[in-house]
Write a structure and sequence with these properties.
Chain lengths: 413, 387
């Protein structure tokens, strides 16, 4: 990938000075200064330490890797910083691991115990999510000021209630399916209807979660808010479906054609069996390709939509050192990330990562982060220098963060 | 004493405004001055909170009182601190050297290979033995309940048939495996292959009607039970569960960031390899069991041949069961022959050749092995939420 070779250098001094001095409306582009080779060395050394410590180091590795990405992300000549405490993250991960072991052991002892454990896990989800958001934002800073997440656990439960209900229903239907005897299956309509309902409500739920994540973020006296955009989420998902359908059909046709060509040359079922593994590889590769095509479209369009819907305004209530906080015009975000560019990046990254058995991954992660970050600009009607520190307390417990990491529930910012 | 001058941005921690500053480190203190040279602050290095060095990325210096200085050229701050006697941490020093990174890569490969070949099998064997028998029993009961509910039906064997099998097995087990506690259960298959037997955690051996009828309840069935008792004595199902968890954790660690789906493939291949080893061990146990009970190893070979011929018929009709966790039967037959010959010098050739088995010597496809040691797939289906 050519963009890796020409990694941008540190911001030139002129740029740095302009970020300091000019008190006028600004349009700031995000710069990413990470380098694939540098991150590869960090990644492999921390991987070795994680293996040698039987996973304990993974919390420190996570902090170093996250810090690498944050601290190489620059806005207006200043870098972001991540302050997560590895000990807190380790504690969170151990707790999550304990939950996970309890869950999987329960599932093996009896079906109903597993169901109960699953429901408990689903009910704890919003709390984990809330704690994770707080930890992530409260431990991020820029220009000496911390970000924050201003919400409460009960609000998180309210927002995530539909998702939690869906999860509980999922585990309950599992229990129902268990009651059917061998050979007897429940009517397929029930499953079809519940699946369709899930699909129909997915964009709504996604918009709801994004609105919660972005609507409660703070940076000093700056409050973020998320413009209602549920209809636009439906648009992205509908287009994704329209793209996915012919891609999927084409992939199936291709798979069948290739299978026929492969088997046709041999004779009889023995040849078909010998071809089974190569055929599975072809099907898998096609699946991943469709995944990349649809996934990159969704990722690019959602990145655009989410940042276009995010605004930030100064909270007027703050009074700093006797003088009222200056009222800031809205801060806007925009990204020009393109679905095709992202798709090319994903497909090339994925192929190289598979071919190198994972060794290319750190290079890919840096290249993808560079593209997605450098597409993004921040427009501030008034200078960002006038933002003052807010009054949010720092977050030290990383229970949610550990759990979100562990279960892969991270929905991303 | 170095006097390198660094550029930085001073943030007071109360607003986002920045002031450009010059930094110098001398006599164990950080001197902060304005671009025109006026000294702003002087702080002892011991009171500063400096973010750890990370490649050439910017570093930040936390001053007492909440102000922060950002140094865009992180590497030059690292060099200046090193010149002042504050060397960066070991992890940083490893991370910045290509040679160390390549060494780390080699060490990762070596470590993973050692864990795969020695560490994980030994650790899971040890933990599986440490699991209390009552817990294992409960686990097995849970699996049986699930199988009974969905896949198995009551046996259609007559009382007499079952008594005969039980007596024959009991007599062999008394001699062949006196230390293994077991319980025989008879079931018929709800669907799928019925030429099957399997061991559940906690000492339960389930015999399906097909295998009892197919072996006519003779010493081939004794061999099959010997194989299953091998799984029991070695706690293979518990070990497979633990190995699955270990392999999954390592695969997620290595490839989880990239793709969870991709991480599942090497994990599945590793489990396939481990279960081949378990089958081989149980086959050896079956031979030992037979010899302990005063029989030859031949019935084990005959049992495997029987399964192989059944499989050929079923395999052609059905979908190729390629994801079977068992080694090729032909390989197992060869191994049993070898072990059977070696464990007893008195035994070189069976006095009577087994029932003619045209497929014995030939290399067959991999298909579901009726001597099913670890019903892991059935378990996976039953536990809600299993990925």
């Amino acid at each position: 990938m050519s963009e890796l070779a020409s990694a941008p250098a540190m911001p030139p001094a002129a740029d740095l000075a302009s970020a300091v001095l000019t008190p006028q409306p600004q349009r700031l582009q995000i710069r990413f200064t990470g380098k694939g080779g540098e991150y590869f060395r960090i990644w492999i050394v921390n991987l070795l330490l994680t293996l040698l410590t039987l996973g304990i180091w993974s919390a420190w590795a996570k902090v170093r890797k996250t810090r690498y990405f944050w601290t190489n992300t620059q806005l207006g000549g200043a870098a972001f910083q991540y302050h997560g405490n590895p000990v807190a993250i380790l504690r969170g991960r151990l707790l999550a691991a304990a939950f996970f072991v309890a869950y999987s052991v329960a599932g093996r002892i009896s079906v109903s115990a597993g169901m109960v454990a699953g429901v408990v896990l689903v009910l704890l989800g919003p709390w984990f999510f809330f704690k994770s958001m707080r930890f992530k934002l409260a431990n991020t800073s820029w220009r000496g000021l911390r970000f924050g997440f201003e919400s409460t656990a009960s609000e998180a439960y309210l927002v995530l209630a539909p998702a939690a209900i869906a999860g509980v229903i999922f585990f309950a239907t599992f229990g129902m399916a268990e009651r059917f005897k061998a050979g007897a299956w429940p009517h397929p309509w029930a499953f079809l209807v519940s699946d369709l309902m899930f699909l129909a409500l997915l964009p709504w739920g996604h918009a709801r979660i994004k609105a919660y994540q972005h609507g409660h973020a703070r940076y000093g006296t700056l409050s973020f808010n998320f413009l209602p955009s549920t209809a636009a989420f439906y648009g992205v998902y509908r287009n994704a479906f329209v793209i996915a359908l012919p891609c999927g059909v084409l992939a199936v046709f291709l798979a069948v054609a290739i299978a026929k060509a492969m088997v046709g040359s041999g004779a009889g079922p023995e040849a078909a069996k010998a071809m089974f593994f190569p055929m599975m590889a072809v099907v898998y590769a096609l699946m991943m390709l469709v995944n990349a095509v649809v996934g990159s479209y969704v990722a690019a369009r959602l990145q655009r939509l989410v940042w276009a819907s995010t605004h930030a305004t100064s909270s007027t209530a703050g009074v700093i050192f006797g003088t009222p906080a200056p009222s800031l015009g809205p801060v806007r975000f925009s990204t020009t990330v393109g679905a095709l560019r992202l798709m090319r990046l994903w497909v090339v990254s994925g192929l190289l990562t598979l071919l190198t058995l994972g060794l290319y991954w750190p290079f890919a992660a840096v290249a993808i982060a560079r593209y997605r970050l450098e597409c993004t600009t921040v427009e501030a009607a008034e200078p960002l220098e006038s933002i003052a520190a807010g009054g949010l307390s720092p977050e030290r417990s990383a229970t949610g963060e550990g759990a979100v990491d562990f279960f892969g529930w991270d929905i991303g910012l | 004493v170095s006097e390198a001058v660094l550029e930085g941005l001073l943030f007071d921690g109360r607003s986002a405004a920045a002031a450009p500053v010059r930094l110098a480190i001398a006599n164990g203190a950080l001197r902060v001055s304005s671009p025109d040279g006026a000294l702003l602050r002087e702080e002892p290095l011991a009171l500063l909170r400096i973010t750890e060095a990370l490649g050439s990325a910017p570093r930040q210096i936390g001053l007492p009182g909440g102000a922060v200085i950002e140094v865009p050229e992180g590497a030059s701050l690292t060099a200046a601190l090193a010149a002042a006697g504050h060397r960066a941490g070991l992890v940083y020093r490893l991370e910045v050297r290509w040679r160390a990174a390549l060494g780390a890569f080699a060490a990762c490969v070596g470590f993973l290979a050692a864990v795969y070949v020695y560490g994980l099998p030994a650790a899971t064997r040890w933990i599986a033995r440490a699991v209390p028998a009552s817990a294992e029993q409960r686990l097995g009961d849970g699996v049986l309940e699930l199988l009974d509910g969905r896949f198995l039906k009551p046996t259609r064997l007559s009382e007499d048939e079952r008594r005969a099998v039980e007596a024959r097995i009991a007599e062999a087990a008394r001699l062949g495996a006196p230390d293994v506690k077991y319980r025989l259960l008879f079931r018929s298959a709800g669907f799928g292959p019925s030429m099957n037997a399997f061991a559940l955690p906690g000492g339960t051996v389930v015999l399906l009607d097909g295998i009892v009828r197919g072996t006519a309840g003779d010493d081939r069935l004794v061999a099959v039970v010997g194989h299953e008792l091998g799984h029991e004595a070695r706690r293979h199902s518990m070990q497979a569960f633990l190995q699955g968890a270990g392999v999954g954790a390592v695969a997620t660690l290595l490839w989880g960031d990239f793709s969870g789906q991709a991480a599942a493939i090497p994990a599945a291949l590793a489990m396939f390899d481990y279960s081949r080893e378990a089958e081989r061990e149980a086959d050896e146990d079956a031979v030992r069991f037979l010899r302990g009970a005063g029989r030859s190893a031949q019935p084990m070979v005959a049992a495997l041949c029987l399964l192989q011929s059944v499989e050929r018929e079923e395999g052609l009709a059905g979908i190729p069961k390629i994801f079977s966790t068992h080694p090729k039967i032909a390989e197992r037959i060869a191994h049993v022959r070898e072990v059977g010959g070696l464990t007893d010098p008195a035994f070189h050739r069976p006095d009577s050749e087994p029932a003619p088995c045209p497929s014995c010597g030939r290399d067959d496809d991999e298909a579901t092995d009726p001597v099913h040691g670890t019903p892991s797939r059935a378990r996976a289906k039953g536990s809600p939420g299993s990925p």
